Input
Amino acid sequence: MPLDRPDPDHARRALLDERVATSALRDSMSARLRSVVDAASEATADDEHDPEGSTLAFERGQLVAQIERSTERLSEIEAALTRLDTGAYGVCESCGDQIAPARLDALPATRLCIRCASARTSRRRW
Output
């Protein structure tokens, strides 16, 4: 049973809203990272006896990871906008089937239908 094609205006609004939110998150995390780096540079140089050293290092690592995820997410959003412009939006990049509208509502930048996404997740080896 074929699915309805996604409404391009609705999809574009959702992607642009997500881009704004993700950019704001990345900017916020970048500002926080600068604050943590500044705090670490003002702290004592004696790492062995610095009670805040491991806490600041952990927080810095968490912030860097979040910034990287946000940057990757922005790339995914831009790719989805390109697919929207070329008419490929809503088509699974793996199997070529249409992606369910509910999935696109939940994950506007998704490249895969639920079946293909599930198959990739189940093949992951830890």
